[in-house]
Amino acid sequence: MQERDAQRYLEALMSRRSHRLFDGQTLTENQLSSLGELKAESLGLGHLRTHFVHRPGDLDHVFRGVVGSYGKTLGTSALLAFTAAEDDSWQAGMQCGYIGEQYVLLAESLGLGSCWNGGMFGIKQLMALVPLGPNERVVSLIALGTPQEVQDRVGRLTKMVFKRKEIGEIASGTLLGSGGYITAALEAVRLAPSAVNRQPWYFDTGSEGEVVLTASRRGGLVPVDLGIAMLHFYVAALAQGVRGHWEVTGADRAVFRLLPANH
After folding, report:
1. What percent of the chain has pLDDT over 70?
2. I want to staple 215 with a disulfide (CB 3.0 to 4.6 A). Which of 24, 46, 104, 252 is the partner?
3. How far is CA 19 from the centre of its chain?
4. Global pTM?
5. Which domains does the chain have, with CATH numbers?
6. CA 99, CA 49: separation in Å to the nearest integer?
7. What pLDDT score was predicted for residue 67?
């Protein structure tokens, strides 16, 4: 990723919010080509497949509501489905979050809205559009389209019940006191989407300028959430000219290491 791309994504993540209601319109040629040409950066974990389906206004049957149609995603123009081997669990989840959020931020910069969907969909309906291989599972979906102005009720309720954590709740005082690019990177993480807005991450200092990310809770979608958080941190750091990379050291832990200045 180039620094100019990081600047573009940083602007996008600051304005992004989740949408479940879309207008069902066809994506423009520029939007389609930009999404199709994205060469997303990877964490190098597992084997994740990305599927893009563009069927404007004809995807409502794929999605499910919380109860009946309540909270259902409607009017989607396109969806991204991420699939992986059944036994490739947390690795595929982190990879999905890291790669998928690059599509989310690119879509935002193209004037599109999005919504992560970790399980509120019909698997049979989806398989008619995205055939699964042997022993393959769906890791997550992302709905894409031009958002309607009205915010859905589930989104409003989630934000009321699970408010974003303060920066001191997601990072140690030692890390916050280190200054430099850290504060902006953590503020970008605060804006990252997560399942039910739980924000299951915690950042601390490591050795020799390293930043250590650990999961603050367990759950099926936590690896996806961690991947999204890592991408937001990376983007904000790079936008400030700080180059580094994430090394995943376990199912609930990763380390951000700075690259040499001449890298």
Report:
1. 91
2. 252
3. 14
4. 0.93
5. 3-156 (3.40.109.10), 163-258 (3.40.109.30)
6. 11
7. 43
